Amino acid sequence: MKETSFRHRRLLLLALIAAVMVSACRPDDTLDITPSPTPTPEPTATPTPTPVPADFVDPYEVNLGVMERLIEMLPDPLPAGEEEWKRNFEEGNEGVKNIRGIRRPAVGREIYYYTQQGSKMSLNFAVFPDEEGAIAEFDRKQGLRSSLVNLAEDDAFRKPNLLGAGLYGSFALFQIDNYFVEVLVEIFTTSTSPLTPLANETLKFFERSRAEFEAVAGDPAEEDG
Question: For 79-87, what is the mean pLDDT?
Answer without folding.
Answer: 94
